[in-house]
């Protein structure tokens, strides 16, 4: 099945490219921010167990305990860093975007690995998509099960985030647990720069309410850099972030 986006770009809906990491209750689930793995377990009422294989239920009936920021692919709005509540479900209202996939090798800066403005400027080469998808090198498959806590992963420089914002890019996707440095004393420079948040306690009028950041994606090496249509899918959580399923389509 083929479809046209904005009467300009044709995509084949039968060939989705999923760049999300599934959420599981196994040790293969990626984890960040010092928490344990997700819990997926059947509801128990006395002798009744919500699991068909246990022989006491006609349905599988699980509770799931997880954290969207720490347990896999998620999409967040500026409510992630503001005193006032903002919901990703209210911030993200359209779901198809022209996206540019770029691959960058973070630069060594002291003990850190940093994605710089120059990386983004060079990779985009004058193009201004609605969404940018950043794949970091080396692109190890172990990212899909990484345990990021206290490992000082690579991050995006403040200048790079400002450049992305000033370019007019609305949606930023990255294969890291955060666009910011793990231990940064709460500065959150890249988050604030991308969303143009000057004061988390008193939101400025030009803050980017409809811009989103998606973290902990995985983009296989078989997927080539270049232009795609991005379908950014979230669950309808009234929360600052939701687990998400970004899907790419070749144009």
Topology:
Blueprint: E1 2-5, E2 9-12, E3 17-18, E4 39-42, E5 44-45, E6 48-49, E7 62-65, E8 74-76, H1 88-91, E9 96-104, E10 107-109, E11 112-115, H2 117-124, E12 131-136, E13 155-156, H3 158-166, E14 171-174, H4 189-195, E15 212-215, E16 226-234, E17 241-250
Parallel strand pairs: 9-12, 11-13, 12-14, 14-15
Antiparallel strand pairs: 1-2, 3-17, 4-7, 5-6, 8-15, 8-17, 9-16, 10-11, 16-17
Helix pairs in contact: 2-3, 3-4
Structure description:
By secondary structure, the protein is mainly beta. It has one domain: Glucose Oxidase, domain 1, CATH 3.50.30.50. It is 11% helix and 30% strand. The protein contains four helices and 17 strands. A seven-stranded mixed barrel has the order 8-15-14-12-9-16-17. Helix 2 packs parallel to helix 3 (158-166) and helix 3 (158-166) packs parallel to helix 4. The longest helix has 9 residues, at 158-166. The two termini are 13 Å apart.
**Per CATH, what is the topology?**
Glucose Oxidase, domain 1
> In CATH, what is the class?
Alpha Beta
Which strand order spans the largest sheet, edge to edge or round the barrel?
8-15-14-12-9-16-17
Q: Globular, elongated, flat, extended or rod-shaped: what is the shape? A: globular
CATH superfamily: Putative cyclase
Poorly predicted ranges: none
Count the E strands: 17
Strand content: 25-35%
**End-to-end span in angstroms?**
13 Å
The total count of helices amounts to 4
Structural class: mainly beta
**Could you tell me the radius of gyration in angstroms?**
19 Å
Mean pLDDT: 97
Keywords:
251 residues, 17 strands, 7-stranded mixed β-barrel, KFase_sf, KFase/CYL, hydrolase, mainly beta, arylformamidase activity, 3-stranded mixed sheet, globular, Glucose Oxidase, domain 1, Metal-dependent hydrolase
């Amino acid at each position: 099945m083929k479809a046209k986006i904005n009467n300009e770009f044709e995509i084949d809906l039968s060939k989705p490219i999923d760049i999300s990491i599934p959420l599981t209750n196994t040790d293969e689930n990626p984890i960040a921010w010092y928490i344990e793995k997700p819990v997926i377990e059947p509801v128990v009422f006395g002798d009744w167990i919500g699991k068909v294989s246990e022989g006491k239920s006609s349905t599988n009936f699980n509770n799931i305990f997880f954290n969207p920021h720490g347990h896999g692919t998620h999409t967040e709005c500026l409510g992630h860093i503001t005193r006032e509540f903002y919901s990703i479900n209210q911030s993200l209202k359209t779901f198809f975007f022209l996206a540019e996939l770029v691959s960058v090798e973070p630069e060594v800066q002291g003990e850190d690995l940093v994605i710089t403005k120059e990386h983004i400027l060079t990779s985009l080469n004058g193009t201004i998509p609605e969404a940018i998808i950043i794949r970091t090198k080396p692109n190890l498959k172990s990212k899909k099960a990484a345990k990021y806590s206290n490992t000082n992963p690579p991050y995006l420089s403040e200048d790079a985030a400002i450049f992305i914002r000033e370019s007019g890019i609305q949606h930023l996707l990255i294969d890291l647990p955060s666009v910011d440095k793990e231990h940064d004393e709460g500065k959150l420079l890249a988050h604030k720069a991308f969303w143009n948040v000057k004061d988390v306690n008193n939101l400025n009028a030009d803050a980017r309410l409809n811009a989103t950041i998606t973290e902990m994606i995985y983009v296989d090496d078989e997927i080539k850099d270049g232009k795609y249509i991005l379908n950014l899918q979230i669950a309808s959580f009234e929360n600052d972030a939701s687990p998400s399923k970004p899907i790419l389509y070749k144009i």
